[in-house]
């Protein structure tokens, strides 16, 4: 029997990290093509700006992805809101940090792990029952090109993004025969806030240092726009890829 490919166009999707960058571009692109979208982000202001450009059936939700209980509550809200089966769950929200291994602040590292890894796990666990209940749909977890290879000053970020890949690859194997699939996205060098600013949890001095180190890390990588990234991710999911590279090799 031919494998059923996930179809997104015109169908409901959920996207975290939709207040800016790749998540916003994905939400606008899929909504423009007819998808009802449920969009979530911890940044209420940015989310409002995204929502202002969305049309039709839309659910907006301020959400911290690291909060597992709130992710489950949000999944219940999405279940009630859904006008048709949920086609895809994009666990896309993420943050970045830059530090040498020795200078890393363990609290900052844990903050990043909570969002970039546990946020993805929380979103997967909260939404997977909806997809499995439908017998269709795809979990799309955002890793990074740094989930495929290490990078200096990015040890925590790389560790979390490798973990997203390991988690999602295992999930995909568990899901065989259910009609549900799981995919990782590996962006690299997309012009978004995460690349422009880097982020430190506190510490303005660290934030400046982080910016310079992030800029240096990305210098060698060709840059593209979040709209182009959204297009590659959309096509990649619909073509049934297990790993979608949105890095220099993809454009
Ligand atoms: P971005 O900073 O523009 O978007 C990230 C979004 O995540 C922001 O809107 C932010 O508010 C949101 N977010 C942060 N913490 C959150 C939390 N706790 N709960 C909910 N939302 C939260 O950056 P982007 O490049 O669009 O990033 C999207 C994803 O792509 C991230 O997972 C990032 O790690 C990944 N990525 C991006 C690149 C790139 O080149 N831009 C490279 C590799 C991976």
TrEMBL record:
<dbReference type="GO" id="GO:0016491">
    <property type="term" value="F:oxidoreductase activity"/>
</dbReference>
<protein>
    <submittedName>
        <fullName>NAD(P)-dependent dehydrogenase (Short-subunit alcohol dehydrogenase family)</fullName>
    </submittedName>
</protein>
<dbReference type="InterPro" id="IPR002347">
    <property type="entry name" value="SDR_fam"/>
</dbReference>
<keyword id="KW-0560">Oxidoreductase</keyword>
<feature type="domain" description="Ketoreductase">
    <location>
        <begin position="11"/>
        <end position="193"/>
    </location>
</feature>
<comment type="similarity">
    <text>Belongs to the short-chain dehydrogenases/reductases (SDR) family.</text>
</comment>
<dbReference type="Pfam" id="PF00106">
    <property type="entry name" value="adh_short"/>
</dbReference>
<dbReference type="InterPro" id="IPR020904">
    <property type="entry name" value="Sc_DH/Rdtase_CS"/>
</dbReference>
<dbReference type="InterPro" id="IPR057326">
    <property type="entry name" value="KR_dom"/>
</dbReference>
<dbReference type="InterPro" id="IPR036291">
    <property type="entry name" value="NAD(P)-bd_dom_sf"/>
</dbReference>
<dbReference type="GO" id="GO:0016020">
    <property type="term" value="C:membrane"/>
</dbReference>
């Amino acid at each position: 029997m031919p494998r059923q490919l996930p179809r997104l166009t015109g169908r409901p999707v959920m996207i975290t990290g939709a207040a800016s960058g790749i998540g916003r571009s994905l939400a606008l692109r899929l909504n423009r093509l007819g998808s009802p979208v449920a969009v979530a982000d911890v940044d209420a202001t940015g989310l409002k700006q995204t929502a202002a450009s969305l049309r039709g059936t839309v659910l907006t939700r301020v959400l911290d992805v690291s909060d597992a209980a709130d992710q489950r509550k949000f999944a219940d809200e999405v279940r009630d809101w859904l006008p048709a089966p949920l086609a895809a769950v994009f666990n896309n929200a993420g943050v970045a940090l830059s530090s040498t291994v020795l200078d890393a602040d363990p609290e900052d590292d844990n903050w990043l792990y909570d969002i970039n890894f546990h946020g993805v796990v929380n979103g997967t666990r909260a939404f997977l029952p909806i997809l499995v209940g439908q017998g269709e749909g795809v979990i799309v977890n955002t890793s990074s090109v740094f989930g495929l290879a290490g990078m200096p000053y990015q040890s925590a970020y790389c560790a979390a993004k490798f973990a997203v890949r390991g988690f999602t690859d295992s999930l995909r194997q568990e899901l065989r025969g259910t009609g549900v699939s799981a995919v990782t996205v590996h962006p690299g060098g997309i012009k978004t806030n995460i690349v422009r600013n880097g982020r430190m949890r506190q510490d303005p001095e660290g934030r400046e240092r982080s910016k310079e180190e992030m800029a240096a890390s990305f210098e060698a990588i060709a840059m593209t726009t979040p709209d182009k990234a959204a297009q590659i991710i959309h096509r990649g999911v619909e073509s049934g890829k297990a790993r979608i590279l949105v890095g220099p090799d993809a454009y």
